[in-house]
Amino acid sequence: MFIEKFKSKIHRATVTEANLNYVGSITIDEALIEAANLQEGERVQIVNNNNGERLETYVIKGERNSGVICLNGAAARKAEVGDTIIIISYAWMDAQEAKSFKPVAVYPDENNRLI
């Protein structure tokens, strides 16, 4: 049996851009991607703490140490610059692995930099 379990998150990141005229996705600072054990192209859930919106999209690598958190395409309608969001990833694993798996949580500062 396989279950889908919380794998990692970037908790309380600040939206720095919203680009409606882009194909789609979320652009995330490369340093945050690595710290949160994410991969470019990986599906993530975005939870907006300001308005309660939830959506799924995929990760695009942004410039390292830039602090960029940019919702692109239709997702840009779900948040405003300055909103606080949580970026969550999940992974499928067998039930035995899931018992001992430890997720990664990253808590950036107000400028989306690693603390």
Walk me through what this model shows.
This protein has an 8-stranded mixed β-sheet. It has helices at residues 30-35, 95-100; strands at residues 2-14, 17-19, 25-29, 43-48, 54-62, 69-72, 84-94, 104-106. β4 and β5 form a beta hairpin. 10% of the residues lie in helices and 47% in strands. The protein has 115 residues and is mainly beta. The longest helix has 6 residues, at 30-35.
Write a brief structural summary.
With 115 residues, this protein is mainly beta. It is built from 2 helices and 8 strands; from the N terminus they run βββαββββαβ.
CATH topology: Barwin-like endoglucanases
CATH architecture: Beta Barrel
Instruction: State the helix count.
Output: 2
Uncertain spans = none
Provide the residue-averaged pLDDT: 97
**Estimated structural class:** mainly beta
H/E element string?
Answer: EEEHEEEEHE
The counted number of beta strands is 8
Spatial sequence of strands, sheet with the most strands = 2-6-3-5-4-7-1-8
Approximately how much beta-strand content do the residues carry?
Answer: over 45%
The top level CATH class name:
Mainly Beta
Helix content: 10-25%
Task: Estimate nothing, just give the exact number of structural domains.
Answer: 1
End-to-end gap: 38 Å
Work out the oligomeric state of the chains in this entry: single chain
